[in-house]
Design brief:
CATH superfamily of the largest domain: GAF domain
CATH class of the largest domain: Alpha Beta
Number of helices: 10
Main location: other
Largest sheet: 6 strands, antiparallel, barrel
Helix content: 25-40%
Strand order of the largest sheet: 6-15-19-17-16-20
Radius of gyration: 50 Å
Organism: Chitiniphilus purpureus
Order of helices and strands: HHEEHEHEEHHHEEEEEHHEEEEEEEEEEH
Distance between the termini: 72 Å
Number of strands: 20
Strand content: 25-35%
Number of domains: 3
Subcellular location: Cell envelope
Protein name: HlyD family efflux transporter periplasmic adaptor subunit
Shape: rod-shaped
Keywords: Coiled coil, Membrane, Transmembrane, Transmembrane helix
CATH topology of the largest domain: Beta-Lactamase
């Protein structure tokens, strides 16, 4: 193709696109497509098939109006409908490649060669097709130019299409082609893929069956003899209370006892010669016994101010400075004595992440200090009601016993992986959003 002919073809293409945009009706546009396209590419017959309504031949070259009852147009309509369903791109045709049932009559109605040009708008919706036929095949350059032209025809034709309602647009979006069906099946397979419902919860290695050391009486902690995590032997002193108040009370009790004893001695002497002394003797004896009991009780309290370990273990508490100088009441928890070989896992499952857990289920602990290691434990119990953690979060306490092997260090913290039942991936991914939506919407 020479440079002059190329320029002429380009000018003709631009003029046809302008004519298509200026068409005032679908009929005028169809006339341009089947008749004026001849200025760009030579052909003998042309037909415009519209997909609107039931689908029909809307324009034919050389005819001002179409008669749907004409045998030629009926055959041409069946051919175009078959081509519209089978081809979505520009397709060259002849009698041998014609759709089934149309090849026998091809020679009666069309030349030897034809070209099917689908009219597809920018949204991918096919408006119909343009069929061009002649005696010689269409070359590659002609097919490329015509493909560019029918793109403009489809765009102009879409302008006459009535605006679709929301229901129609939704229906068109749901129209499945092969690619959409494959994508939908793949997404459905991913959504239904079974996964284990799991929850990650903060956890700590705590003592199992520890010995609780409490304050023996009201007072102020004077001194601690052990440090946190220190191993102590049975009978070793743990802490002591301030004795100033108790010593003053014991001194008063001792003085009262001595006074009562002297009064009893004098009453005993008078009782030998005086009847009234015998009556006073019994009263003095009662007072002496009472003072003796008070002195004994005060002495016992002084003996209890120093608390000793009833059994060997490791002292479990936070800090010595938290207790020294602190006032305590009788029965208040001060520390724990734990056996390092007897530990268990305590996991705090948040209420918002609650899943059904059964005793005997194996869970895993991932220590924060050593993320490359993991410890397995078997659930022993799950708390019936939730309690508040140190961070102010409501959580269920899950206790688990470690499997055979060296137990982890007492006090080790990390994250516990709590496995639940098998659920579809869609439920696993949308579980939290659904829960939040129910809280906001009140389902």
């Amino acid at each position: 193709m020479t440079q002059t002919s190329a320029v002429d073809a380009l000018v003709t293409l631009v003029q046809l696109e302008r004519r298509a945009r200026e068409a005032q009706s679908p009929e005028a546009l169809g006339f341009v497509m089947v008749n004026e396209t001849l200025a760009l590419v030579p052909y003998r017959q042309a037909a415009f098939w519209s997909d609107s309504g039931l689908g029909q031949v809307a324009a034919v070259s050389g005819l001002p109006q179409v008669d749907p009852n004409a045998p030629y147009l009926q055959w041409l309509g069946r051919l175009c409908r078959a081509l519209h369903q089978a081809h979505t791109a520009t397709t060259p045709l002849d009698a041998a490649s014609a759709p089934a049932g149309q090849a026998a009559d091809w020679a009666d109605w069309l030349p030897a060669h034809a070209l099917w040009l689908p009219l597809t708008d920018e949204a991918g919706l096919r408006e119909g097709g343009l069929l061009l036929a002649r005696d010689t095949p269409f070359n590659e350059h002609e097919r490329a130019v015509l493909a560019e032209l029918v793109h403009a025809y489809a765009h102009a034709l879409a302008a006459f299409r009535p605006r679709r309602s929301t229901a129609q647009r939704f229906k068109a979006a749901l129209r499945l082609n092969r690619v959409r069906r494959r994508i939908l099946l793949a997404l459905l397979g991913v959504c239904l893929f079974p996964v284990r419902l799991t929850v990650l919860a903060p956890a700590e290695v705590v003592p199992r069956d520890p010995f609780l050391v409490r304050a023996p009486l009201d007072g102020v902690v004077e001194r601690f003899f052990v440090q946190p995590s220190q191993a102590v032997a049975a009978g070793a002193p743990l802490f002591s209370l301030d004795t100033v108040t108790l010593q003053a009370r014991r001194a008063l009790a001792q003085r009262a006892y001595d006074t009562a004893q002297e009064e009893y001695r004098q009453s005993a002497q008078l009782a030998v010669t005086d009847d009234e002394g015998r009556v006073k003797l019994a009263q003095s004896r009662g007072e002496l016994e009472q003072k003796a009991l008070e002195l004994e009780y005060t002495t016992e309290q002084l003996d209890r101010v120093q608390v000793k370990a009833d059994r060997a273990g490791v002292a479990v508490f936070d800090d010595v400075n938290d207790w020294q100088g602190k006032a305590v009441v009788v029965g208040e928890k001060v520390l724990l004595l734990a056996d390092p070989a007897k530990v268990e896992l305590l996991a705090q499952m948040p209420v918002a992440e609650q899943i059904p857990l059964q005793p005997g289920t194996v869970i895993a602990l991932y220590p924060s200090a050593d993320p490359t290691r993991a410890y397995e434990a078997r659930i022993v119990s799950v708390a019936y009601s939730a309690g508040e953690t140190d961070e102010g979060v409501l959580a269920y306490r899950v206790r688990a016993r470690f499997e055979a092997g060296a137990p982890p260090r007492l006090g080790l913290r990390g994250t516990a992986r709590l496995p639940g039942s098998w659920v579809p991936f869609a439920y696993y991914a949308l579980r939290r959003p659904f829960a939040v939506a129910r809280q906001w919407l009140g389902w």
